[in-house]
Amino acid sequence: MASLFQYRWFxxxxxxxxxxxxxRAVQFYFASTNAQVAEFLAATPDTFREFLSQQxxxxxxxxxxxxxxxxxxxxxxxxxxxxxKPLTRVEYVLGKLVPPLAFVLGVTLVPALVLLILQIVxxxxxxxxxxxxxxxxxITLYSLIQALLSACAILALSSLSKSRRFVAVxxxxxxxxxxxxxxxxxxxxxxRKWAVISPGEMLDVIANGIFRSRVEPAVPVYVAIVVVLxxxxxxxxxxxxxxxxxxxxx
Amino acid sequence: xxGAWRVFELSLGEMxxxxxxxxxxIVVGSPVLVxxxxxxxxxxxxxxxxxxxxxxxxxxxxxxxxxxxxxxxxVPVLGVFYGTxxxxxxxxxxxITYLFTRPIRRGAVLVGKYLAYLVCTTLVVLPGVMxxxxxxxxxxxxxxxxxxxLTDLGxxxxxxxxxxxxxxLIGAVMKRPLIVGLVFAFGWEQFALVMPGYMRRFTLMYxxxxxxxxxxxxxxxxxxxxAFFTSTPSALTxxxxxxxxxxxxxxxxxxxxxxxxxxxxx
Amino acid sequence: xxxxEHLSKWYGQVSGLNDVTVKVPPGIxxxxxxxxxxxxxxMKLVTGxxxxxxxxxxxxxxxxWGNPALYHRIxxxxxxxxxxxxxTGLGWVTALVALNGLEPAEAEAAARRALEAVDLLDAAExxxxxxxxxxxxxxxxxxxxxxxxxxxILDEPLSGMDPLMRRRTIRLIxxxxxxxxxxxxxSHILHEIESMTSNILLINNGRILAEGxxxxxxxxxxxxxxxxxxxxxxxxxxxxxxxxxxxxxxMRFEPGAVSVETARPDAFYARxxxxxxxxxxxxxxxxxxxxxxxxxxxxxLVKQ
Lengths: 250, 266, 304
Known about the structure:
The structure holds 3 protein chains of 3 kinds.
Chain A: H1 2-6, H2 8-17, H3 19-33, H4 35-41, H5 45-54, H6 56-64, H7 68-75, H8 78-83, H9 89-107, H10 109-123, H11 127-131, H12 135-158, H13 164-189, H14 199-210, H15 221-242
Helix pairs in contact in A: 3-4, 3-10, 6-9, 6-12, 7-13, 9-10, 9-12, 10-12, 12-13, 12-14, 12-15, 14-15
Chain B: H1 2-16, H2 19-43, E1 50-51, E2 54-55, H3 58-83, H4 88-93, H5 96-100, H6 106-136, H7 139-173, H8 177-193, H9 205-210, H10 221-229, H11 235-259
Antiparallel strand pairs in B: 1-2
Helix pairs in contact in B: 1-6, 2-3, 2-6, 3-6, 3-7, 3-8, 6-7, 6-11, 7-8, 7-11
Chain C: E1 2-11, E2 14-20, E3 23-24, E4 28-32, H1 39-46, E5 54-59, E6 62-63, E7 74-77, H2 89-98, H3 104-117, H4 133-145, E8 151-155, H5 163-178, E9 182-187, H6 190-196, E10 199-204, E11 207-213, H7 214-220, E12 226-232, H8 235-243, E13 248-254, E14 257-262, H9 265-278, E15 284-288, H10 294-303
Parallel strand pairs in C: 4-9, 4-10, 7-8, 8-9
Antiparallel strand pairs in C: 1-2, 1-3, 1-5, 5-6, 10-11, 12-14, 12-15, 13-14
């Protein structure tokens, strides 16, 4: 984590990721100070759901910058060194999961919670929060699901290669390819059920379900949850097979 | 140019059998699979496909795949993935030393690798497009739409050339070209294309998609906005603009590579 | 062959090379220094991979940076173990030498000659990925000399080689030197350089500590006491005789021998020769100097 923080570009990325937060904060400010615009700019649960959705780009960039988490260790043969210490494979993987989890939560959960606090502070009352008590667990749960999915995916891909650049290519390819294929299949068949092939769409369905959005989901929420669980499961299986102290060369 | 050609010959083999190209083949193979499924489903006499509730003809399905998959995804993605790594891959593999200690200008090395990228990607993508076409479009409709296929092949090749050139420049100049490339292709271009005025002229997709013979599918807000703001330039304008973009990108990339020092990881 | 004038190279705040002015003559020259001394930086500047931050560097009378035509006359064997693993040794060397402008048939013939020179012709059709460490080093050297350059730059060429292969490679390098090529070899292993050449460049902390013949360098270090180990029939008698000699700094007795430190080695050796001839201090069986080699020179200079 420390080495990533040293990169100026990463620092700039984290700074820019708070751009939508600033916009929303200004929105809440004007909503609470100007009665004329309060109706249009007032906070709703959908505001927070949309905010988290907008942070999706920064989640993608923050995750893709960590493509070398395991790939670098494999390239430098450090993996064998780590696992020759009193360190289990589970501890190694958990340790490697922390940076992507932390950074993703840093651009999703943290600004969303601060936004909620700002709304209360600017409004000068907890009326909104009392009326939408589910928001706190909703923000937390959705952020955690998004962070876990992204972190497991990038870690699994990182364990498949010794080149961090190739891992980044694979991750970006999978994200964009599944989205593009969904668009094609939906256009051809007219059915939104093809959203199951796109992790991004599944996260959207889960978000709509958690935030009680009135948007008609492409698939039932439980299907989206199963898809996310399957992806995480596959990632864990890949990690179990790839994180070994000894590599058997046939 | 002779030096560039020699580098092209050396790089083509390496590129064709690299992991990256295997990944590319899988990506291009997916629409072929979809096309095969469509053909099988159609031959079983199942309900025909619909686009926005309207019954589709197969040429339109092919057009949808060209727009949504090949043009908006595969071409920019390949440009980013290959273009940004023309030199970066050699630096990472530490084989750049062998190329830069030969009596060939570094710019020529870049051009040679760019040509290898172009041949490699067109060799994988264009046959994929042709397979999709012949799988989807019924035999009796082939004659009428064959020129459309040829246009599609030409513009996809041109798109690969244009994106490859631009991202070769980004790869030569920037330290993290992959991120910049993805932000350009899937951030800036998506945004600029829906803006009115001159903004969309600062994208490559504006010129490439203006050459597409198929109607743009209206599958979302973005497409609707793009259709609303569309003022399509002439084919000549598009071709000239893309040619200039390629030439300028490669020239600047060559100059950047000549000046830059490549320090290998110890 | 290679000349530098106030050559410096910085990586940000870190100095890789600092104000180096040398003239490397034709023949075999060893570039010697510990890890991190600046050898690789110097090699990269010599081969035009890096641009000097300050000063100039010329190879065969021409600046190397941005001058690709000069590579017709330079062959470089880099330190890193990096190849196009998928290719065969012959295919790889042929492809690289073709970049020098040779036609395909010419390039293959040149590649075969180079592979034969490094004793790798038998394995030429095997993929480089299947090569042993020593074979990989040799195929690297083959690509460096396939186009028959005038100057060979070899960065740690013996790295990873077994003793037998080391000997053969050292012999090869000496042959290249005798055949008229100029060779610059870098290493941090002192006896390797010593076995190839007596012409050295000593580098440490980005600075050239000394250049020239190892014996000449030794002579320059006149403030450093020279140790001589003498095995004699009667060490005490020998010690008594040597004690009165001018320049003897100290003595130490060892079983059957005496170790002398002298500030004037030439005069000392001359006197010792006289004593051995006359027998005045008894029989002298053996005279060696642990200082008259690169190790001692290097250790002394690095400590400065």
